[in-house]
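Reopening this ticket.

The earlier resolution said the output was attached, but the attachment link was broken on my side. Pasting everything inline this time so it's all in one place.
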Amino acid sequence: MNTKSQFVNIRRILYANAIFSGLSGLIFTFASKPIATFLGIAPSSGIILALGIGLMVFANVIYIFAKREEIPKRYVLFIIIADSLWVLDSILLLVTGWVPFTLESKWAVGIIAVIVDLFAMLQFFEWRKMD
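Inline output:
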């Protein structure tokens, strides 16, 4: 199997993750105050804005590595761990009550966590196949 075909599946998953993370980052950045209000966070805190900027940086990192001819296995593991930490943090926020989420915002956080978890699982399955 040549190098390009060896990385086709993981590359597609990483590109999809980069697109999802980048779009989420853009939305969080440019609509940070309404999103903060929706989530029950003080809009002046800047947490959602910082999260949006961080997501755009994360998306860029994913894209840079995904477009390489050879994708390092340790890099994919890093992305899997980062996505898994997002899911874990989401669960902690939902069960601890640290943020006074409304029912609607709990659903939003949960749905995003499920999407990110799907990326983590797909990446993990492909990571196990990598040489």
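Reporter confirms the inline version is readable. The chain has one domain: 3-129. Helices lie at 3-6, 8-30, 32-39, 47-66, 73-96, 103-129.
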